[in-house]
Write a structure and sequence with these properties.
It is built from 6 helices and no strands. With about 160 residues, it is mainly alpha-helical. The N and C termini lie far apart (about 70 Å).
């Protein structure tokens, strides 16, 4: 008779890391900031994780892959933990995140145009005559082409734009 490949009811942090694809130090960090509940400990003091911990870590990992912040994921997990989530809330969050992604894409396109312009001015001469170095040392004259389209975001010059 073949052995079943069932997930054990409890496992170590190393096994949790291997199953979730998240490093041990990251799991400990998530526990410290409260996005991951601290597991019970064995009599010897070792952390003992359950399949619920694994599910939560997979949720967090997938959320991070979709570029959700830890604060947003914490809020979502509160909804899930309290069994008060609705698809309406999820949809609103997804649409808000989509808008943020579109803003990032616009920022990247603007950055691409700015860098293409700088690269086109590069002549290969020694550093004192380098367009990139000159650009980095100078304040932008037409800063609109270097600024983020999203209020409260950093522009290419490194200054934070005030939110409207």
């Amino acid at each position: 008779m073949a052995r079943s490949a069932a997930i054990p009811s409890e496992f170590s942090i190393g096994a949790l890391a291997a199953r979730s694809g998240i490093k041990i130090e990251t799991i400990r960090y998530y526990e410290r900031i409260g996005i991951m509940p601290k597991p019970p400990r064995s009599a010897a003091g070792y952390r003992r994780y359950t399949s619920e911990h694994l599910k939560r870590l997979i949720f967090i990992r997938r959320g991070r892959e979709l570029d959700f912040s830890l604060d947003v994921l914490r809020g979502l997990l509160r909804l899930v933990d309290g069994h008060t989530h609705t698809c309406t809330e999820g949809r609103a969050l997804a649409l808000e995140h989509l808008e943020d992604i579109r803003g990032k894409i616009a920022d990247l396109k603007r950055l691409e145009r700015a860098m293409a312009e700088i690269a086109a001015r590069c002549t290969g001469k020694p550093i004192p005559d380098c367009a990139l170095v000159d650009t980095l040392f100078s304040a932008p004259t037409d800063s609109s082409k270097f600024q983020s389209a999203r209020p409260g975001r950093r522009n290419i010059s490194g200054f934070t734009e005030p939110a409207s």
